Amino acid sequence: MSVKLYKPTTPGLRKTSRQDFSDITKTKPEKSLLIRLKKQAGRNNTGSITVRHRGGGAKQLYRLVDFQQKKYDMTARVLAIEYDPNRGPRIGLIEYEDGQKSYILGYEGIRVGDKIVSSQGKIEAKPGNRMRLEHIPVGLFVHNLELTSGKGGQLIRGAGVGAQLQVIEGDLAQLKLPSGEIRLLKKTCRASIGMVGNSDFSLVRIGKAGRKRHLGWRPTVRGKVMNPVDHPHGGGEGSNPIGLKGGPKTPWGKKALGVKTRKRKKWSNKFILVRRKKK
Asked: Has residue 172 been placed in a domain?
């Protein structure tokens, strides 16, 4: 994918860029792989807002992407490359030898007609094939990575990302994640070869507030322009600094920046060799 730029004929287009959909080969999704996606607007089961600034947005149907691929040793052919409004990368429509269709994450270099295989044993390490980490050559990039063996891919699913398999020792495999974190996983966990496609997705600029609303985001107001009753940064005459000892605060008075949210005694801490890089 490439990014499409516009001539600045309007204030909105001046800062706008969009995806180039020339890689899409099928515009209408597979009906059997669609479900209705109910809008939550950031609310929980009691109706209370638990995630702010969410609501509205264009209607979307959810594509049932297969993150497990449990049809082992059965060749599947890529029928089409489709757009998914719910994620950054493209999705590939595949058909197995028995006629069953499913969606997979579009990997870098995916083409219509490609043949891929998912297996418990050792198979050819080409992009799109899926196998256990113990069978993947060291140094290759993988995506759709399992945290728990057999549960399905939970890591490395964003557009343009990949984790590098560094070494396998004993029952554990060492991988370097896109964040810079180096983590140990069981070598029986499965992953797909290659990086996730659509790497230019991060270069797209929204450009105007209207497009943000279409994505389901509502306006965000700065704390320093609120009243003191509404936010710790609020109050004062004119434009003032936040003036708080200890740095910025959340609307509920807790520290907002540089706070570690991971539990200090979490059981899986022993599997993290190097923590992620600060941005």
From this structure: no
Structural domain tally of the chain? 2
Residue 93 placed within a domain: yes
Whether 184 maps to a domain, the answer reads: no
Contacts of 73 (CB under 8 A, 6+ apart): 117, 118, 119, 120, 121
**CA distance between the termini of the chain:** 26
Alpha-carbon distance 133 to 149, whole Å? 10
Task: Give residue-wise pLDDT tens across range 3-45.
Answer: 899 999 998 898 899 998 988 998 899 999 999 988 889 999 9
pLDDT digits (tens, 9 = 90+) for 95-144: 999 889 999 999 998 999 899 999 888 888 899 999 999 999 999 999 99
Determine, yes or no, domain membership for 221.
no
Segments in 123-241 forming alpha helices (H): 209-214
Going from the C-alpha of 6 to that of each of 3, 10, 15, the distances in angstroms are: 10, 10, 9
pLDDT in tens, 13-23: 988 999 989 88
Single out the residue in 183, 202, 221 at which a domain terminates.
202
